[in-house]
Amino acid sequence: MVNQQVTLLNVNSGTSETARDITFEFDNYLNQIVTHKRKINKRFLEWFIGLTEGKGSFLVLNNKVYFDISVKIEDIQVLYYIKKELGFGKIKIKKDYEGGSFAASFYVTNYSNFYRLVILFNGNLCTVNKKREFKTWLEIFNSQYSKEILFIDRDPKPSLNTGWLSGYIDALGSFTGVMENSEEVNSITYLTFFITQKEFYILKVISEVLNLSIKNIKKNNDCWILKISSVNKLRLIVNYLKRYTLKTKKSLAFTKWYKIYNLVLNKEHVNEAGLNKIHFLTKEMNKHI
Fold first, then answer.
1. Domain for residue 221, yes or no?
2. 191 and 102, same structural domain?
3. Is 108:89 a contact under the CB 8 Å cutoff?
4. Domain boundary at 112, 145, 178, which?
5. Which end of the chain, N or C, is surrounded by fewer C-beta atoms within 10 Å?
6. Cβ(196)–Cβ(83) below 8 Å
7. Cα separations in angstroms, 146 against 123, 136, 142, 153, 194
8. Which portions of the chain are predicted below pLDDT 70?
9. Are 127 and 256 found together in one domain?
10. Residues 176, 247 share a domain
11. Do residues 139 and 12 both lie within one domain?
12. CA 93, 97, 98, 102 torsion: positive or negative?
């Protein structure tokens, strides 16, 4: 609970910290919401912060601040969802020059809305890289608008009781399924969930939340990958995403993936009928990767 003053012991520093120091704080943002919004959607805000830490950009150009979240054009509906929940922002379609296709962006203009983002994100970011990016962005914001807002160096943690991880998975998570032929059996089904990120720290935190060993995190070129393939170990993430649902088209992949998960869990992958279902669902799921 955000306002619960439970004292916890920080074993590294020997000092105590309250529950406020390890979760998200929206009291200040509540005082800055747009006039036509009567209350905040806490679960949405947690999800939005997670999505921003994975896909958002605190941009600085010519000593001016910009904010952008870009997605594939197929996911434009999630940007309208963000705009509706925040009550501000704009959406544009742009050419994705790397892929030759189109993308969509949610962006913000004018001081009032930038200030709302400052209040929302300041002290509520979990990843080291995004904190560093936001701190620089805040310095430019202060210079641009003659403000003196201090950077709040809090350390909120993802948990299975907030929407942050769902937003982060919407940004950087993936669900895959592979069926391979084998001489011993007709086929073997591999289900995998993974998150790819350049920052090791946040994957370590997520692995702890999911009761995983650090061995589940591997280096791949300039990135780190948190990977889970064990059906038993996947249980926590499955139960979490049933409560904190995904908002992007990635939810379609998860729906198919979850059906395969249940088939494997119920040992239906050892008979022909079950394998046929898995084969069909795998093809459908991989369309949304």
1. yes
2. no
3. yes
4. 145
5. N
6. no
7. 21, 15, 5, 21, 43
8. 1-21, 96-100, 178-189, 268-271, 286-289
9. no
10. yes
11. yes
12. positive
Q: Are residues 33 and 133 in the same domain?
A: yes
Domain boundary residue, one of 84, 117, 145:
145
Domain span including residue 124: 7-145
The pLDDT of residue 86 is 97
pLDDT on residue 102: 86
Question: CA 75, CA 82: separation in Å to the nearest integer?
Answer: 12
Instruction: Give the max Cα distance, the chain.
Output: 71
Same domain, 281 and 174: yes
pLDDT tens per residue, range 76-120: 999 999 999 999 999 999 876 566 688 999 999 999 999 999 999
Distance, in Å, from the CA atom of 178 to the CA atom of 83, rounded to the nearest integer, reads: 37
Instruction: Take residue 75 and report the two structure tokens written for it.
Output: 């996911």
Cα dist from 137 to 48, 60, 79, 113, whole Å: 18, 7, 22, 14
In a domain, 205, yes or no: yes
- CATH classification at residue 190: 3.10.28.10
Q: Indicate the residue type of 216.
A: N
Contacts of residue 22, defined as CB under 8 A and 6 or more positions apart, other chains included, come to 8, 155, 156, 157
Spatial neighbors of 177 by CB under 8 A, at least 6 apart, are: 189, 190, 191, 192, 256, 257, 260, 278, 281, 282, 285, 286
Q: Give the pair of three-digit tokens for residue 77.
A: 């509906």
Task: Answer whether 278's CB lies under 8 Å from 263's CB.
Answer: yes
Angstrom distance (rounded) from CA 131 to CA 153: 8
